[in-house]
């Protein structure tokens, strides 16, 4: 079977068998089966999904990372695991790179990191703790890009993701009868104040950022009760790690003021932080040369700045000496990443695999 067809079959399997973060059991088993079929050495873990494989021999080690988890979302009225994140494509492209390289004469080791739980924002940390980046000089990632960023055929040598973090909070006030609102402390008023507050946090317009409510739960079936308690969540993003620190400080101060103004308790915690990209110029230039060699100068795009986040960048935060870049692959992807009906042109898979193989060979 030719490699392009095999890559498509890998994608078809992973697309049809999505699994959410930390529960990628069948996905890991399939990866094991593939490595056994290809006679590629690999390691798995007793307490974690995911897999690390290696080919080649030598003093130096370069690596590529594929994220393997799916989202949990509503698709056609049913809540289910769904690869609208494109991680099925990422796995297929990385496996394709392995196929293109495994019969090459390599003077170094090439490591393939199949990482769980990117969507939780901390799967990379679990792999770092288990030695995935030990001895690695250069690390590359790959991700399909929405059509609004890159069309099919074009490839970018670096994605400059922003920082992202979630906030989970709880409001504690007092319920009241609908006819006697003065006797309670209305959580709905507090939610409205929080919504207005996060929309009025301003920084320089020359750097992108956002903060928005993404989840609110309060009240019950009795419509004559004014709810005193509620839970809520924020999604907060910025283009840089420094601006994220400022955003968090401003929100912390604002919530303390709102709690005092409405005489309620507000408890909150920041969770699942994902840092902004720290891109290595050297790694980016290696990727750029590979892209030029595979698809030509006309299809070599500039580095992309995107408001999305990816826990790939924890590898460089935890190991600053690591030279890393994530490659963006145009795929005519619509309507967008994380949309339940996301779709793309499958010709992008072989393009991404060949670019990755050329990048790893030359790193």
UniProtKB/TrEMBL annotation:
Organism field: Planococcus halotolerans
Protein name in UniProt: Amidohydrolase
Binding residue positions for Mn(2+): 85, 87, 119, 143, 338
Cofactor: Mn(2+)
Protein keywords: Hydrolase, Manganese, Metal-binding
Species classification: Bacteria, Bacillati, Bacillota, Bacilli, Bacillales
Record SUPFAM superfamilies: Bacterial exopeptidase dimerisation domain, Zn-dependent exopeptidases
Cofactor binding summary note: The Mn(2+) ion enhances activity.
GO molecular function: hydrolase activity; metal ion binding
Pfam families from the UniProt entry: M20_dimer, Peptidase_M20
Domain Peptidase M20 dimerisation as annotated: residue spans: 170-258
């Amino acid at each position: 079977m030719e490699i392009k067809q095999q890559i498509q079959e890998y994608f078809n399997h992973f697309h049809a068998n999505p699994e959410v973060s930390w529960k990628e059991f069948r996905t890991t088993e399939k990866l094991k089966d593939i490595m056994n079929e290809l006679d590629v050495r690999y390691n798995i873990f007793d307490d974690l999904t995911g897999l690390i494989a290696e080919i080649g021999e030598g003093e130096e080690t370069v690596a590529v990372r594929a994220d393997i988890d799916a989202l949990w979302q509503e698709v056609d009225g049913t809540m289910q695991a769904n690869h609208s994140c494109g991680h099925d494509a990422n796995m297929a492209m990385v496996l394709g790179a392995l196929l293109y390289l495994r019969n090459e004469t390599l003077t170094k080791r090439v490591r393939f990191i199949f990482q769980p739980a990117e969507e939780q924002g901390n799967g990379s940390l679990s792999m770092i703790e288990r030695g995935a980046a030990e001895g690695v000089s250069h690390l590359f990632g790959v991700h399909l890009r929405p059509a609004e960023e890159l069309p099919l055929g074009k490839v970018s040598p670096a994605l400059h993701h922003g920082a992202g973090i979630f906030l989970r909070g709880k409001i504690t006030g007092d319920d009241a009868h609908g006819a006697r609102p003065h006797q309670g402390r209305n959580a709905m008023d507090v939610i409205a104040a929080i919504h207005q507050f996060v929309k009025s946090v301003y920084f320089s317009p020359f750097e992108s950022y956002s903060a928005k409510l993404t989840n609110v739960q309060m009240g019950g079936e009795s419509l004559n009760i004014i709810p005193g308690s509620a839970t809520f969540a924020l999604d907060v993003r910025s283009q840089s790690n420094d601006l994220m620190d400022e955003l968090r400080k401003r929100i912390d101060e604002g919530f303390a003021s709102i709690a005092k103004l409405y005489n309620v308790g507000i408890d909150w915690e920041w969770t699942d932080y994902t840092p902004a990209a720290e891109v290595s110029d050297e790694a980016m230039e290696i990727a750029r040369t590979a892209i030029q060699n595979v698809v030509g100068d006309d299809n070599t795009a500039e580095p992309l700045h995107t408001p999305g986040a990816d826990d790939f960048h924890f590898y460089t935060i935890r190991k600053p000496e690591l030279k890393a870049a994530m490659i963006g692959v145009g795929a005519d992807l619509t309507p967008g990443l994380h949309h339940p009906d996301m779709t793309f042109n499958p010709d992008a898979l072989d393009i991404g695999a060949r670019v990755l193989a050329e990048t790893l060979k030359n790193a």
